[in-house]
Amino acid sequence: MEQYSGMEEQIASFPEQLELAVEIGRSLDLPALSNIQNIYIAGMGGSAIGAEFVRQWTTALCNYPIHVAKGYHVPAWVGPQTLAIISSFSGNTEETLTAFETIHQRKAHIVGISSGGKLRQYALHHHIPHITMPRKWISPRANLGLSSVLQYFILLKTGMLRVDLSDEFLRAADMLRQQALAIQRQAEQTARDLSNIACVYIIVPEEYASVGLRFRQQLNENSKLHAAHFVIPEMHHNAIVGWKDAPSEFAVLLLSFRNIHPRNRLRLRLTEEMIAPICAHSCTLQSKGNSSIQESLYMVHLTDWISHYLALLRGVDPVEVEIIESLKRKLREQSH
Known about the structure:
Elements: H1 7-12, H2 14-27, E1 38-42, H3 49-58, E2 66-69, E3 82-87, H4 94-105, E4 109-114, H5 117-125, E5 130-132, H6 144-157, H7 166-178, H8 180-194, E6 199-205, H9 209-221, E7 226-232, E8 250-256, H10 262-275, E9 281-286, H11 292-314, H12 322-333
Parallel strand pairs: 1-2, 1-3, 3-4, 4-5, 6-7, 6-8, 8-9
Helix pairs in contact: 2-6, 2-7, 3-6, 3-9, 7-11, 8-11, 9-11
């Protein structure tokens, strides 16, 4: 299978990835579950962000609480009445494998998702359903389409969801292809506006918090830039105070969507009016699309391109994450 190794081609092929994910998802054969009370998704970094989107997209459709966990520890309520999705692109993520062992001991209903590694081996050994992701996109963070859509299909195929949203992913892929040139042009201009910025603050409404988190992670990993994200309205009860004496080399990007609470739309506008005079740069990025899924994926694609172009302007490799790999090596050297 052809691999996409450069970040530019990994981002550009996002519509293709969404279509492949739907094709794989529709072919899945998973057992329907009963007596489930909650859904627990374990993952880290690029292997966890897909779960954040699934939770966002299904919050009004799923009758079960969905908890996304990022770490070693598993709460006491995870047990035989839990559907647990274990997500690790490499299949070797230390924290996720540790959580997997605990969850398996608790006799939860587990579905694994990885490209191989120890997670796939453990799943096969214990006769646990496992979805093998193709390694066409080599960076875990570049597999958001596969990760989110396949985790959505796990919920659908096991009976946790009764609404088939798969056509929405295909419509989103079509929209992104049609808008490709305009998206890249806007992203390149936005990146130029940020090229001399020390830190980017992302402000996002609660309905699309996962998009803000994703953008922050992409600026961290692709652009090698300090970034933070804040969610409205919660930030208006704490973080807004910190802007009283904000350094002038900071920038603010507000992410706006059509399908949000009218008070959150007002809050976005008022926030920009208050912050713009005291920071180096501010602007609002407006999403497009006819549904929450389409708007989310449009903004993901736009901000992925921003992070890529910003990396090029900063003279850094958007694929390289050596500091993460170095930390993992040190952890392995001191393994218990």
